[in-house]
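SEQUENCE, STRUCTURE TOKENS:
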Amino acid sequence: MTDFLRPGHLSRRLPLAALSLALAGLLSACASTATMPPNTPAAISDETRMMYAEVQDGDITIPAIEDKYLTEEKKRQVVDYYTSERPGTIIVDPAARWLYQVQENNKAMRYSVAVGAEGLAFSGNANIAVKREWPRWTPTANMIRRDPETYKPVASGLPGGLENPLGARALYLYKGGRDTLYRIHGTPSPWTVGHATSSGCIRMFNQDSLYLYDTTPKGTKVVVLPKDRSGEGTLTPAAVTEPTTDGSA
């Protein structure tokens, strides 16, 4: 995962046609093969369609997100959020499948994300030490040993592009100077966003990954909430501290 080729230097198709079949079976710390059902059709505003319209990113055209994978709730939006963390901090709530980018005045930009098993395995504090555009993806040695038939043909890695599991942008989380192997990244599989998946880190619509990448400097603090803290920040401090009463004696 550490190699990086800039978009202008990449071939946008896999070098071997046979690898397109292998891609369908890729499982990794930041790849997912889960086929999720589309959302129930609902009214999508023109504003939301514009947010997730086709994007020209250098020499790559990122496809628009189809209406069937969108809802007004899932779109990137500012919401009320109560935290003592400083503005700019990223808070990931894997169990709820939301990512919050803290703003001032008890607000946050909220993103819908997909979460795999690996995304639920890490919690705590980290920081964004590396940022990459159209990152290269490489299977780990453990993955190759576990499933050589799938991963050995791509042991040297896959260049960045529309078929790459890491999508258009990736933020790499480090802790104590060491790579956690935890990534926040785009995805070529928009139907997974908003769902729990069989594998993977934290992925979002490619359009959202562009926005998060551009507004997140290196060194940004990231807080990944454990399951027992899911929903933290969505209630006012008063709602958390005040006892509830049911009128009983």
Observations:
- The domain at 7-35+48-227 is CATH 2.40.440.10 (L,D-transpeptidase catalytic domain-like).
- Confidence is low (pLDDT under 50) at residues 1-29, 32-36.
- The chain has one domain: 7-35+48-227.
- The longest helix spans residues 206-214.
